[in-house]
Amino acid sequence: MGSGKRSLTTAAMVLACACAVLSAPGVAYASPTPAPTRTPTPTPTTSPAGKDLEAIRKKLDALYHDAAVATDAYNAAEEQAKQQSAEIVDLARVIVQGQDKLDELKDRAGAAARAQYRGGGLPPEMRLWLSDNPQQYLDGAGRVLQGEHATKGLLAEMTRTQQDLQQYAKDASAQWQKLEANRQAKATAQKEIKKQIAAAEKLESQLQKKEKERLAKLEEEAANTAQTAWLSSGVLAEISGKASEQGKKAVKFATDQIGKPYEWGAEGPGSYDCSGLTSQAWAAAGHGIPRTSQEQWKQLPHVDVKDMRPGDLIIYFDDASHVAMYIGDGAIVHAPRPGRTVTIAGAGSMPILGVVRPDA
Q1: 149: which of 26, 133, 195, 258 lies 20 to 30 Å off by Cα?
Q2: Is-catalytic flag, 65?
Q3: For position 165, what pLDDT does the model report?
Q4: Mind giving me the DSSP string for 289-307?
Q5: pLDDT tens digit string along 301-353?
Q6: What DSSP element (H or E) covers 315?
Q7: Contact 67, 264 (CB under 8 A)
Q8: Quick one: 327 exposed, middle or buried, by C-beta within 10 A (0-12, 13-18, 19+)?
Q9: Which helix (H) or strand (E) holds 326?
Q10: Can you give the pLDDT at residue 31?
Q11: What confidence tens digit (pLDDT) does each residue in 220-237 have?
Q12: Nearest to residue 276, comparing CAs of 318, 326, 334, 315?
């Protein structure tokens, strides 16, 4: 990123964190001044409504987290289905080629058998005595022997080709079974995603406008509190890695998507889910990586947080259900969840599982 963008990002994050530290919910949302005829009572630090909204915030986090887990399962099944479909197509092509080869071998074997049949009749000794040119006969007999050996070779090759075709057919059948299993897994995951998102949307729809505004404030405060705690650990002072050339390209691609909506299962160009954004960003940088956050965590090289550099991927939560791209200055770019857009946030705003480096 350019120094200007980093400065703006840093300034925005510092301001957000400062607001989180200095803000006091009890002051901003204190009860109205009581009427003079009543005895004043102390204003509670957190109102009962505030407690309810905090519980709702946590419930929404849990619902969207479960949706993210199901999205990863959906994406994994989708990738496996694509791979199996491609393998079935390849096997079908090989089977067709093998059948053509077998037909050709059968034709050649048939021609050889017919030639041998036409050359039959008298015993070899009589044909030698009756021949006007014994040497020509002997040469012909040698060719007959060669033909017999060639015919045996043809038969052996036919047998091998038939065995190969049988194995290819078994492989294709196995791939079809796996494909069907992954289609079912996709369908199950899709139902789970829709179920969790529908529950979250229903819960949010029951809130009044002011409650939604307060809920958004609570979400922001929770993220800022987590980011402040992360920065307070001094980790940012230890992070000094510079982006690789591919990393710079990946960061540019990811930040260019800011403002585009989150959509589960999406890989762009109009919308993304979390791993769709990171995988496409690195694909644009010329380096393919796994599609899902869990596979990115499993397959890509791990690095320490203090060694992190722009372009690295931060994996979040114990089940690796979310991923973001580190862009420097303690910030990430990511596709958060349904109802949100690709945005910049604090790298420590969610529980970090670890960091992976696609171009290690």
Answers
A1: 133
A2: no
A3: 80
A4: --SSHHHHHHHSPEE-GGG
A5: 999 999 999 999 999 999 999 999 999 999 999 999 999 999 999 999 999 99
A6: strand 313-316
A7: yes
A8: buried
A9: strand 322-328
A10: 33
A11: 999 999 999 999 999 898
A12: 334
Which H helix or E strand runs over 103?
helix 48-118
Whether 170 shows a pLDDT value over 50: the answer reads yes
Residue 179 has which token pair?
């494909």
Under a CB-based contact definition with an 8 Å cutoff, are residues 105 and 158 in contact? yes
Instruction: Name the one residue in this structure whose structure tokens are 């929770």.
Output: 222
Under 8 Å between Cβ of 331 and 348: no
Structure tokens at 312: 């690295």
Yes or no: say if 143 and 135 are a contact pair by the CB < 8 Å rule: no
Residue 336: closest CA among 265, 263, 235, 282: 263
Report which residue type is found at 179: L
Separation in Å, CA 136 to CA 114, 125, 131, 201, 355: 21, 14, 8, 94, 81
Give yes or no for a contact between 279 and 290, defined as CB atoms under 8 angstroms apart. Answer: yes
Q: Which residues partner with 325 through β-bridges?
A: 313, 333
Q: Greater confidence, 12 or 142?
A: 142
Q: Is 343 in contact with 314 (CB distance < 8 Å)? A: no
- The whole-number pLDDT of residue 143 equals 52
User: Could you confirm whether 19 is annotated as catalytic?
Assistant: no
Interatomic CA distance for residues 43 and 37, integer angstroms: 17
* Rounded mean pLDDT, 192-196: 95
**The one-letter amino acid at 94:** V
Q: State yes or no: pLDDT of 63 exceeds 80.
A: yes
**How far, rounded to the nearest angstrom, does the alpha carbon of residue 132 sit from its chain's CA centroid?**
79
Question: Which amino acid, one-letter code, is at 233?
Answer: S
Q: For residue 22, with 0-12 CB atoms within 10 Å meaning exposed, 13-18 middle and 19 or more buried, which class applies?
A: exposed
Q: Is 274 a catalytic residue?
A: yes
Written as six digits, the tokens of 316 are 């979040």
As given in the structure block, the two tokens for residue 108 are 């050649």
